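Predict the 3D structure for this chain.
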Amino acid sequence: MKNTLDWLALNSGLAEWLLLVVALLTAIFAVVQLWDSRELRFQQARPYVAVGLRRVDHGIVELYVRNLGQSAAHNVRLSSEPKLQSLSDSDAFMVFDVLPTLVPGDEWSTIWEVKAFERARPGDFSNRYEVEVSYEGDSGRGRRSLLDVYILDWEPHLKTTYIENRTIHDVAKALSSIESHLRPRRVFQVGSKGFSVVPNETNAQEKSGGRSWAAMRTFVLRLAGRGNR
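Done. Predicted structure below.
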């Protein structure tokens, strides 16, 4: 111990330099830890804007842009190589120039194809797109620019099967179509054994037909309601 103190007394200048180096390294370590903690908090709270394809119905596929993150994305822009192209309706298919704000859980979508099966045929078009989505997120010290890249490939979507579901809304649409075609010429009569169609010959029958049509509609909707339960 005495030898150490003697050495420090003889080399006080060197000891001061060693203490300065240790203090400097400690400060650098503290700054790095602080930066890492801030970066971790930003990554946990940052916006994540995803781009993808989604089948809506037979032949109908949407392009969607959705914020899956925990904070709002600002000034969202898309670019693609090659340029996004619709085979079904190239004039109607459009992509936004910029979305000022996309809050968490919110999404923008548009119909890309209404006849997706056309992409299974050979042609002068691409089924694979590299899409870049750029946007800004709040970092606590202003906004930070972010960039994500997604590959949109039609091939997996062209080899899928689906089940077409019918709901009560489809029944209502079908009834409206039947009404528009048959109501001026036919009367629907509902009895204990179901309903039947008879010629509509008089104004009185037309009035009765209106009531019969309403009864028939109620009868069919009840049947549909039983089927859904």
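The helical segments are 2-10, 12-45, 155-158, 168-182, 203-228.
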